[in-house]
Every structure is written in structure tokens, then in C-alpha cells.
Amino acid sequence: MLEPGGGPPGDGGAAAGQPPAWQRRFRAPRVSLPSWAAAAPDRCSYATDASGVWQLVSWDRAHDRHTVLTDKPTGVTRGQVLPDGSGVVWFDDHAGDEVGRWVVAPFDGGPPRPLAPTLAPAWSAGLSVREGRLAVGTAGRDGFTIHAGDRAGTRVVYRHRRQASVAGLSRDGALLAISHTEHGGATHPDLRVVDPVSGTAVADLSDGPRTRLLAAGWSRVPGDQRLAVVSDRSGRLRPELWAPPVGTRVPLWVDLPGEVWVVDWWPDGSALLLGHDHLGRTDLHRYDLTGHRHQPLAVADGSVVGARVRDDEALWYAFTSSSTMPVVRVRDADGDRPLLTPPGEPAPGGAPYASLHVDNGEGGRVHTFVATPAGPGPHPLVVEVHGGPHAQAADVFDPQVQAWVDHGFAVAMPNYRGSTGYGTRWEDALEGDPGRPELVDLLAVRDYLVRAGVADAGRTVLAGASWGGYLTLMGLGTQPHAWAAGVAVVPVADYPAAYEDESPALRELDRSLFAGTPAQRPELYRARSPLTHVGSVGAPLLIVAGRNDTRCPKRQVDNYVRALAARGVPHRYEVHDAGHGTHRVEELVGQQALALDFVAEHLGTTPARR
After folding, report:
1. One domain for residues 336 and 476
2. pLDDT at residue number 2
3. CA-based angle 349:31:104, to the nearest 5?
């Protein structure tokens, strides 16, 4: 039974002259979990949005010196320190289009230089850097290529028309793991290990075309050729150890519900740090490879969203929950304490999530988080649909969810079929049938909350980004009776046109989901394209697109909006100067205000408090 958490009333307790709580949650600075140089562990790097745009910072821990390395208008969220600590590597694309090259910024600041100057700009297919050697994956319209580079130059060690990516160089750089889909679709990769000098295959690992194998990291001991892998051949993700040169493969005994994967190795190779995901919450376990036992590393209720083990065995981790913003902490012999605190005021707290399961009418139970405002229902409802589709709604801090709650909405976050964390059958349910099972699940959650008195049936909003935006458009077109308004951000809107323009990796994903290309499965692509159903849309619709998006390209969204306008459906179309989403804080605030005001205009709810 649902027990509403009860969010803060009104404006969330904003003092006179202070911005409302919903805006302060977006603007409170954040930091990512730092990485460090293998040979210089006091040389670290992290990302922060303290400037208003996510940028990379180097951190010299020996002198506690922080240096901003990037000033990219569309932002940078990820980087890694070179093994010797001389610089920080990041991917430099064009205005968010994800086509670019890897560059190195000097650790103490200065202009970046290309990491692999001979490689032309392309979509990224992974990177691994070791002392004296690197591996770079690139993707283009003609396929996927893996390059290896060292003092002898840069050379191609793997090439295929189907999706492939760098899965990591061994600690000494002598072996290179490659994730590839030669035998299956993009959602069921296999592994190959090659000699990075000659490209000769050393070993292959496959559990068949309907299972997935993921590389989770080589042992950190030079010369130790064990690779941690994760397989779902049991129906759930489970960790194993593979020694490619000798062919041994050892499943690890883990008696836990949900899914388990390898986060990191202990520095001496004696243990693994495991991540355990169950019902949208992630915790950590230490697995002893000698005694083959695991024990939990206690953290509060919520989710670990990143973790690494240092050479001195200190655990660095990032933790969050639905009601508290992410924090970066260290756990060592001296206890558990904050590691890296961003400047400024922390974000106000938010409504905790309640957890429930809903029968979808097709033999499944949809795990769903729900956040509710203070006071009795029924409330206007937002069904917030996560992207992916292979992702999940989790017990993590989300300013967008809390903004809806602050304005009187209940928010449901279903882990519909296709979501990760609930086993292979649930995750693979979309293959050959995309865009239908998800909507069955979303409608079941909406109807349950209406029957339970939580949601007002006449004021239910479907909202989401990316795949969530796609499902929003599909829902308004195929379930028009259920939804009073929609908010679709960077959606797939015209599937055949999207396939023509999108990046190579997204084409491979679509080929897997639809069991073929638009030329091979034209009827299915048309049936599962929102544009096909635009004639049934009557609810007001807000659509946001990225001008430089190569995942859900703008042209296909334009096609849908023109059809919507031709029918006279109330709508608003906004285009921002970025790619698939934005890393600018004020852009996020503006988009949330736009959504609140748009829904308020049409449903009579509370407009954005400013």
C-alpha cells in the first residue's frame, strides 16, 4: 500500500527575498566522484557545476589546489587523469553533437592538445589509457573501429560494421578487451581480448546471442591477467572472473536479490568491490576472492552512484537519496566522512519516495517510486518516464521531481518493461515490440494511483526525456483518454526519419529493438512512430529539442511539430543550443519553469513560483 511521503508545502519554505526551494535545488553546486592518476594518486580530477555549467577541475590533493580546466559553453561532465598525472583527458565535441576527439588539458591548466592527433573527429566508442599505451574507439557511418596507440604509432586493431567499443586495457597494457556485437544485437554484446600491438585475437567469450557479457575491469596488479566480467546468463547480472590467456572462467557466489556487478578491484587483487541494485537502490559489498564470501559496506538508505578503491584501500564513493542531494565521501580506517564539498549552500531537502508494485495486467508487476506533496489527495499527477530505455528510476535526488512536488503534484516514476535492474526477461521485453509494453505499464501505474485516491484522473501529465520523451508522444497518441497534457524533451518523434539522421550507436540500438532496420521492418517502424499517431493527439503538448542532438535529431522532431500544428493542437516548441540534453544549470531551471507554466495554463495547476 502506498504511504505518501509528503513533500514541503507551498514554496518549500523560501525566506523573503530568497529564490524558491525548487530553484535552489537546481542551483546548489554539485561535484562528481573524483578520479586519480595511477602513478600519482594525489593528482585527481572531478567535474562540477559551481560556475553554472558543468566543467572539469584538477585537484592537487597534496596542496589542496583546484584548477578549472575547461570553459566549454555546452559543458563537460567527465574526464580522466593520465596515468602519470600530467594532464586530464576529456572528449571535445561540437556544441553537444557528440562528434569530436579526445583532448588532454595540462593538469595545472592551459590549452588542450589532441590525445591521438592522427584520428579524425568521430563519435566516441570508448577510451582506455595506460602508461605508454592507449586504445581509442571511434564510430562513423561505415562502422566501428578500435585503434591502439603507443610510441610505435597509432594502428587499427579491430573494425566491424556492427557496434563495438573499447572495454579496457590491462594494467600493463599488454591486453585489450573489446565489447562487440558481431553475433547479436547492441543489447547483447560479447567480449574479445586482442593483442594491442598486432590486433591478433587472444580469446573470445560469448554466452550466445540472447545474453550480455560486460567487461568490468582488469586486475590492478601488473601482470595479473584476470578480467572481471558480468554476465546475465542466469537471468540476472552476476559477476565472474575470466583469465583470457588460459581460458578459465570462475562465477562468483553471490546470494543477493536483484542484480550485482563489479565496481572496482582492491589494489592487491585479493577482493572486488561489488555494486548491488535491488528495487531502485544501490549498495556496496566487498567480495573476498580467497574465501569467496561477500559482506555489505553499510551506508544509509538511498543509492551509491559511484565508487572507487584507492591504493591505500580507502573507499571513495558518491551517495544520494530521493530527499538529499549527492555527497562525495571517503571511508577508511578513520571512519566515514565527507571528501569533497562543493562551495555555497546545499540544496534544500525534498520529499522522500515511496515504493510500490503495480500489476500491469500482462503477468508483470511494475516497480514504481512515488513522491507526493503534503495534504490529502487526489493531486494532479506527473508520470515521469525515464530515458534509455535500458535505465531505471532510482532512489536518487532529482530537482525536477521535487519541483513538481513543490507545486502540488504527485510524481510517479515507473520502472516499466525495458528498465534495468529487474532481470533479463524484463529488460529484453521490448525487443521486437518497442513502444507497447512500456505504455501498458505506464497506464497501469496511472490507473492504480487514480483508484488509490492519490491522483486526479482529469489532471494527469505524461512527461519524459529521450526514450521517455518518445513514450510521452506515443502515449498521447495511442492513449488519448488517459493523459491531460504532455512534456516531451529531446524525443524520438518520427522514427524512420530519426533512424536516417541519428548516430551509429543509436542505429544499432534501434536495429536491436525493432529486429531490423526501417527498410527491413517498415510496418513496425511506422506503427511505433509517434508521427503515425499524431492525428489522435488532443492534449496540449510541450516539446523541447536540442539543435545539435545526434541521438534524437531535430529534423524528425520538426516533422512531428509541423503535423501537430496542422491539426491545431495546443502546443509549444522550444529548441535549445545543445545536444541531447543540457549541462547548463539556468537552462534546466528555465525548462522546468516552462513545463510548470505550460501545464498550469492548460490544467489550472500552480504556475512556477519565482
Report:
1. no
2. 54
3. 160
Same domain (yes/no): 260, 231: no
374 and 439 in a single domain? The answer is yes
Average pLDDT over every residue of 359-364 = 98
* pLDDT tens string 62-119: 999 999 999 999 999 999 999 999 999 999 999 999 999 999 999 999 999 999 999 9
Q: What is the mean pLDDT of the chain?
A: 95
Kindly tell me the sign of the dihedral angle through the C-alpha atoms of 452, 455, 456, 457. Answer: negative
On the question of pLDDT at 298 being above 90, the answer is: no
pLDDT at 446: 98
d(CA 309, CA 367): 32
What does the alpha-carbon distance between residue 383 and residue 461 come to, in Å, rounded to a whole number?
6
Examine residue 3 and state whether it is found in any structural domain, yes or no. Answer: no
**Residue 378 φ then ψ, to 5°:** -80, 145
- Pair (95, 211) in one structural domain: no
Could you tell me which of 98, 102, 99 has the C-alpha nearest to residue 56?
A: 102
Domain end (from 216, 247, 278)? 247
In 3D space, the residue among 94, 99, 141 whose CA is nearest the CA of residue 119 turns out to be: 99
Give residue 288's domain range.
Answer: 252-345
Q: What is the pTM of this model?
A: 0.96
The alpha carbon dihedral of 139, 142, 146, 148 has a sign of negative
pLDDT value at residue 299:
74
Least Cα distance to 368 among 380, 355, 350, 378 occurs for: 355
Alpha-carbon distances, residue 566 vs 489, 491, 559 (angstroms)? 21, 19, 11
Query: What's the confidence (pLDDT) of residue 10?
Result: 46
Whether residue 144 sits in one domain with residue 92: no
∠259-261-267 over CA atoms, to 5°?
Answer: 155
